[in-house]
Amino acid sequence: ETGKSLYKTRDCILLTTLDDVLDVMKEDKGYTWGKSVVLAGSLATGQLSVLLESGVSGLVCYNSDPEVLIKAIDSVARGTHYIDACYSSSLTEMVLSSNSGSHPTISKLTKQEYIVATELSTGASNRIIAHRLGLSEKSIKAYLTSIFSKLSVRNRVEAALLLRETICKSSMAA
């Protein structure tokens, strides 16, 4: 309780665990997390949208490299959200299952294109996306060409911005 009230009165970033977040949410369903980064393992169905709705700003896998945690803290400190790439499939499922608030062209993407686009929205390079998904860089380039065409965007920045906007709208509508 003391930590919770201290967090609300200070301009700081809270680093916590999924278990702690869920415990607080049981006690205080209206609690808003603000600038917080949550360390978690695998998420149960629906937990990602619950975390986003409660105001969690960052989500990082326990087994991620320290650089990922630093990047998440930096993003949250700058006022943006950060979701570790290990949650891309959860994020994909959340957005694809929520048609309300979705950009009309997003629904044109295949599931695999959406997964590639979600990875793209994390700022990952083609090489990193290929490694994470077990595909060749050539396949990633082909997927991106198709994604850009379907989304009517010119480059990866425009695609990432459109995706992030859609993800935010979907998490609010969920």
Low-confidence stretches: 1-7
Arithmetic mean of pLDDT: 78
Element order, helices and strands? HEHEHEHEHHHHH
Count of DSSP helices?
9
- Dominant shape: globular
Topology, number of strands: 4
The CA-CA distance between the termini, in Å, is 29 Å
Key phrases:
alpha/beta, 57% helix, 174 residues, 9 helices
Give your account of this protein's structure.
With 174 residues, this protein is an alpha/beta fold. It is 57% helix and 9% strand. It has a 4-stranded parallel sheet with strand order 1-2-3-4. Helix 2 links the parallel strand 1 and strand 2. Helix 7 (126-133) packs across helix 8 (137-151).
Short summary:
The chain is α/β, with parallel strands linked by helices and 174 residues long. 57% of the residues lie in helices and 9% in strands.
Architecture blueprint of SSEs:
Blueprint (H helix, E strand, L loop, with lengths): L1 H8 L4 E4 H10 L8 E5 L6 H7 L4 E4 L4 H12 L4 E2 L4 H10 L13 H11 L4 H8 L3 H15 L4 H18 L1
Parallel strand pairs: 1-2, 2-3, 3-4
